[in-house]
Amino acid sequence: MIAKKKIVLAEDNSVLSLLLKFRLEKDGYELLIAKNGKEAIEFIETENPDLILTDVMMDYVSGLEVISFVRNKLNSKTPILVFSSSGQEEMVLNAFNLGANDFMSKPLSPIELSIRVRRLLL
What we know:
Layout: E1 6-10, H1 14-26, E2 30-34, H2 37-47, E3 51-55, H3 63-73, E4 80-84, H4 89-98, E5 102-105, H5 110-120
Helix pairs in contact: 1-5, 2-3, 3-4
């Protein structure tokens, strides 16, 4: 049996987290839900995910700090998809400059997310 691809989802909106978890598990992925950036970093260190999905604005540790941690501290090439409702161009540019692979604006389309996830995991 082929192991499921493991995804860490860092999102502080519990309703959105459950929606995305449902959609991505339906696609055959294993989801680890982090309620903030601190939990995301703990999952990333212990679970070695195949993909990281992170909101930019979160409590304790921001999505930008998560990207920086993964790229600079762990020196990891794990794909990272960032999402934000802020839509601020500077925030998006910062995410890409830190090493994000993709960006989506909120509100998210679960179908579009599913396609982007599949593409990042090829």
